Amino acid sequence: MKEITSPAVSPSIKKLLSYATLEEKVxxxxxxxxxxxxxxxxxxxVNEETVSxxxxxxxxxxxxVIKHIAVLPKERGKGIGxxxxxxxxxxxxxxxxFAETDKEAVNFYxxxxxxxxxxxxxxxGIERFLCEFKIK
Length: 136
Description:
Layout: E1 2-3, H1 11-20, H2 26-35, E2 39-46, E3 49-60, E4 63-71, H3 80-91, E5 96-102, H4 103-112, E6 115-123, E7 126-134
Parallel strand pairs: 4-5
Antiparallel strand pairs: 1-2, 2-3, 3-4, 5-7, 6-7
């Protein structure tokens, strides 16, 4: 995993972030990772190809929120997303990590061990979920 600090977003990171947020918000979100000290964006490469990224916002020294997590479709199901979460928790000694997501990603977080709570229909016709993982 490598931390991304470049002021310009690369095409591969732009593509990955577009899986995790609206395409029109990618540049704005990327800028937050570069400018805000509370945010970190990291990527993972396989055979010199950027295949995933994870963006985290630190709420305090032991608590963080996953803002974005994405893996190229051809690389999904190989444990890459789980490895990225584990990496962040270990590297930054995170004791509690959260994510808000849609129904599509609930199984991913549930398999990792996150507790899932429905937030109801937060947007018209779209149910959202709070996923929380506490490290003992």
